[in-house]
C-alpha cells in the first residue's frame, strides 16, 4: 500500500487541530469574562464596613465620649461603650469559631494557621495545604490576638469588671480554634463580615477615645491654630507620630479581623481604607472641639 502524500498528512493534522483550538479560545474568553467582574468586585477600595467605620468615628464615637463625661477609654463607669465592645468581642469570637461556607484548605479566607490537625488527617490534605496560607492570613493571627485582648479587656474595664480574668482564656481559645478550624461549622462570608463589624466599630471608638484623651482640651478651630506661634514647624512631626500610631492600631484592630472574616484587598485598597480612617478621626476631633468637647 502506498504511503499517503506528506501534504495530505499535514492537511489532515491541521484540520483536526483547528476545531480544538477554535473551541478552546471561546472557552478561555468566556472564563476570562466570567472571572473579571468577580475579581473587580473583590478589589473595591472602599467597602460598606469602611463607610460604617468612618461614620461611626466621625459621629458616634464623639457622642459616646461626651456621654461618658470624664471617663477615659479604659476607665470604668462607661457602660454603653462597654456593652458595645462586649458585643463586638463576642461577635469576633463567633467568627473565629466558624469557617467560610464552601471553602477549605490552608489558603482560604479565615485560615489562621498554615494547616490544622484536621487538615493533616483528611483525604485531601496534600492538596489543601499545597499552596499554604497567604501572607495576609498568616500575618493576621498575632495582631488579631492582641486586638481581641485589647477590645475584650476594655469592655470588661468599662463595665467595672476585672479585665485580667479575660486574657489567658481568650489567648488559649484563639489558638485552639485556629488548630481545629477545618472541623468548625461553616457559615457564609457575608455572615462572617457581619459578625466582625461590631468589633471593628468598637475598636474605632477606642482609638478615637485615645486620641481625644491625648489632645483633650485643645482648641482645633482655624482661628486658634492660626494664633499658635511656630505651629508649622512641629505639626508635621506630631502628625507623623499620630499616623504611625494609627497604622499600628489599624493593623491590629481593623485590618487583621477583617482579613480573618474575608481575605480580600491588596496594598492599594488597604492604604485607601486607612487614609479614610485617619481622615474620619480628624473630622470627629474637629467638630467636637468646635463645640468645646
Task: Describe what this molecule looks like in 3D.
This protein is mainly α and 293 residues long. It has one domain. The chain has helices at residues 6-41, 48-68, 79-96, 117-121, 125-128, 135-158, 164-179, 189-214, 222-226, 231-261, 267-290; strands spanning 99-100, 186-187. A two-stranded parallel ribbon has the order 1-2. Helix 6 packs antiparallel against helix 7 and helix 6 (135-158) packs across helix 10. The longest helix is centred in the first third of the chain and has 36 residues, at 6-41. The protein is globular and about 50 Å long. The relative contact order is 0.16. The model is unreliable at 15-41, 105-109 and 113-137 (pLDDT under 50).
CA distance, first residue to last residue? 102 Å
- How many beta-strand segments? 2
Q: Provide the helix percentage.
A: over 70%
The best one-word shape is globular
Oligomeric nature of the chains: single chain
Taken as a percent bin, the fraction of beta residues is under 5%
Main beta sheet: 2 strands, parallel
For the residues shown, what is the average pLDDT? 73
Secondary-structure class: mainly alpha
Question: Which series of helices and strands comes N to C?
Answer: HHHEHHHHEHHHH
Count of individual domains: 1
Low-confidence stretches: 15-41, 105-109, 113-137
Strand order of the largest sheet: 1-2
Count of discrete alpha- or pi-helical segments spanning 4 or more residues: 11
Amino acid at each position: 500500500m502506498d504511503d499517503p502524500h506528506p501534504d495530505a498528512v499535514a492537511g489532515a493534522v491541521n484540520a483536526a487541530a483547528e476545531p480544538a483550538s477554535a473551541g478552546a479560545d471561546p472557552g478561555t474568553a468566556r472564563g476570562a469574562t466570567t472571572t473579571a467582574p468577580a475579581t473587580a468586585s473583590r478589589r473595591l477600595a472602599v467597602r460598606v464596613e469602611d463607610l460604617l467605620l468612618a461614620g461611626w468615628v466621625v459621629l458616634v464615637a464623639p457622642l459616646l465620649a461626651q456621654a461618658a463625661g470624664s471617663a477615659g477609654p479604659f476607665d470604668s463607669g462607661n457602660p454603653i461603650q462597654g456593652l458595645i465592645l462586649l458585643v463586638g468581642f463576642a461577635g469576633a469570637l463567633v467568627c473565629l469559631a466558624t469557617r467560610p461556607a464552601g471553602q477549605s484548605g490552608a489558603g482560604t479566607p479565615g485560615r489562621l494557621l498554615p494547616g490544622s490537625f484536621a487538615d493533616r488527617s483528611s483525604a485531601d490534605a496534600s492538596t489543601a495545604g499545597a499552596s499554604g496560607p497567604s501572607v495576609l492570613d498568616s500575618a493576621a493571627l498575632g495582631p488579631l490576638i492582641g486586638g481581641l485582648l485589647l477590645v475584650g479587656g476594655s469592655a470588661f474595664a468599662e463595665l467595672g469588671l476585672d479585665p485580667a480574668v479575660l486574657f489567658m482564656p481568650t489567648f488559649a481559645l484563639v489558638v485552639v480554634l485556629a488548630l481545629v478550624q477545618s472541623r468548625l461549622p461553616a457559615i457564609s462570608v457575608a455572615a462572617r463580615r457581619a459578625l466582625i463589624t461590631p468589633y471593628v466599630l468598637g475598636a474605632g471608638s477606642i482609638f478615637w477615645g485615645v486620641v481625644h484623651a491625648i489632645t483633650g482640651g485643645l482648641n482645633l478651630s482655624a482661628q486658634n491654630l492660626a494664633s499658635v506661634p511656630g505651629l508649622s514647624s512641629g505639626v508635621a512631626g506630631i502628625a507623623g507620630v499620630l499616623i504611625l500610631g494609627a497604622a499600628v492600631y489599624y493593623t491590629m484592630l481593623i485590618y487583621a479581623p477583617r482579613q480573618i472574616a474575608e481575605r480580600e484587598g491588596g496594598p492599594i485598597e488597604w492604604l485607601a481604607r486607612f487614609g479614610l480612617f485617619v481622615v474620619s478621626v480628624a473630622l470627629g476631633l474637629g467638630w467636637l472641639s468646635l463645640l468645646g468637647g
